[in-house]
Amino acid sequence: MSHITLTAKAVARSVDCRALLPEALQGKTVAEIASIKLAANLSVADVFEVSVDTASEAAAVTFKNTTSAHQYIGFGMTTGQINVVGDAGDFLGAQLQNGVLICTGNAGARAGDRMRRGMLLIEGNAGDYCGSDMMAGTLGVLGTTGAHLGYGMKRGTLLLAHTPAAQATWVDCGFHKLPFLNILYKSFKRLDSRFAQISSQRVQRWMGDMGGLGKAEILVIQS
Fold first, then answer.
1. In a domain, 10, yes or no
2. What proportions of the chain, in percent to the nearest 5, are helix, strand and coil?
3. Is residue 46 part of a domain?
4. What residues contact residue 204 under an 8 Å CB cut-off, 6+ apart?
5. Is there a contact between 209 and 216 (Cβ–Cβ < 8 Å)?
6. Are 77 and 118 in contact (CB under 8 A)?
């Protein structure tokens, strides 16, 4: 296993990072990773400084100094862990199939879009359409969320620290104490994240999106 660190250089254009997944980079040298094409005339070396720690016990990729220009981070990830130490652009963790993705900053629009499994944790704010068309998994946001939260969401859990704007197709089910959250919180404890500090089992719960299956949930943590 190896832990790859990608430290962002200053960029004046958006960068598609979907090729930079733990499963895709495992076993590659610094030179091999640096030569990966992100666009027709753009390679990893143009955008990131690369380092590889082959002594790591887990398959992981850490992005540092990223901004909203870095889009599609974690797109379609199937294993391992991605850490984003900075902000992220649109489609963070979109089509996530497994693994853990932690963003310490803010995320753009469509975070967790069509997410199928795994865990996406955003310590900052999330843009519009967070959790759109989400099929399963857990998406947490400690900051605020934008418009159209959970639009078209099928199943899964949105765990929020702040009450979102009212959603026309979501039904408020009131306040509950949900002991099963202890299991989720235990999974947070092993992570280097602010989510590890959450302990309250009392939440306000919404069910939706009633424009579709209506089997997803939004849980807002209460103090």
1. no
2. 10, 35, 55
3. no
4. 163, 172, 174, 175, 176, 219, 220, 222
5. yes
6. yes
Is 159 part of any domain?
Answer: yes
Q: Which DSSP category does 196 fall into?
A: G
Number of domains in the chain: 1
Write the CB contacts of 89 (distance below 8 Å, at least 6 apart in sequence): 14, 15, 67, 68, 69, 70, 71, 72, 73, 107, 108
Any alpha helices (H) in 35-135, and if so which ranges? 44-47
Q: How far apart are CA 211 and CA 187, in angstroms?
A: 31
pLDDT at 190 over 90: yes
Strands 157-160 and 138-141, how do they pair?
Answer: parallel
Cα–Cα nearest to 89, from 72, 103, 76: 72
Which SS3 state, helix, strand or coil, does residue 25 take? helix
pLDDT in tens, 112-136: 999 999 999 999 999 999 999 999 9
H or E element in which residue 181 lies? helix 181-189
Share of the chain above pLDDT 70, in %: 100
Give CA–CA dist 164/70, Å, rounded. 25
d(CA 61, CA 28): 12
What's the whole-model pTM score? 0.97
Instruction: Record the tokens describing residue 143, joined without a space.
Output: 């900051």
Asked, for residue 49, whether it belongs to a domain, the answer is: no
Neighbours of 135 (CB within 10 A): 16
Which residues contact residue 85 at a Cβ distance below 8 angstroms, ignoring those fewer than 6 apart? 62, 63, 64, 65, 66, 104, 105
